[in-house]
């Protein structure tokens, strides 16, 4: 199964939606902690749901169980934390939430994890994809840039 990831920053709407459509994404799984911010532009939750459906018949699903907590994110973003500490805390959170046991792998086939970070290197969407790959196996992760 292919599992995609994408961030919306540093992308215009044409590039963002083009990447999803050209890769055959059938469902966007929003793993952001804050998906209603005006700063999200075209990726604001309700607008994004509409655009995905209208432009490509793509489903939109919020998955807050795959978002970091405000404390973990704040320690990294606002308090100048380092990535290694964030990564350990977030991986522990995924284990604590037992996400691989509570989510249906079928919902992840040809789906795309959405967050705001441009690249996957320092984004929790990559950590989610890798966690599910380890737990479920049979997942090919593709980061859309």
UniProtKB/TrEMBL annotation:
<dbReference type="Pfam" id="PF04343">
    <property type="entry name" value="DUF488"/>
</dbReference>
<protein>
    <submittedName>
        <fullName>DUF488 domain-containing protein</fullName>
    </submittedName>
</protein>
<dbReference type="InterPro" id="IPR007438">
    <property type="entry name" value="DUF488"/>
</dbReference>
């Amino acid at each position: 199964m292919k599992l995609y990831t994408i961030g919306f920053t540093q992308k215009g709407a044409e590039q963002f939606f083009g990447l999803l459509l050209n890769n055959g994404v059938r469902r966007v799984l929003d793993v952001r902690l804050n998906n209603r911010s005006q700063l999200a532009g075209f990726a604001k939750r309700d607008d994004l749901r509409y655009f995905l459906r209208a432009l490509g018949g793509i489903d939109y699903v919020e998955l807050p169980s795959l978002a970091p907590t405000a404390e973990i994110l704040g320690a990294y973003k606002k308090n100048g934390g380092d990535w290694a500490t964030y990564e350990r805390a977030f991986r522990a959170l995924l284990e604590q939430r037992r996400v691989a046991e509570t989510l249906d792998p079928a919902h992840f086939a040809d789906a795309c994890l959405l967050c705001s970070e441009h690249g996957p290197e320092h984004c929790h969407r990559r950590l989610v994809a890798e966690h599910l790959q380890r737990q479920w196996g049979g997942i090919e992760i593709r980061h859309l840039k």
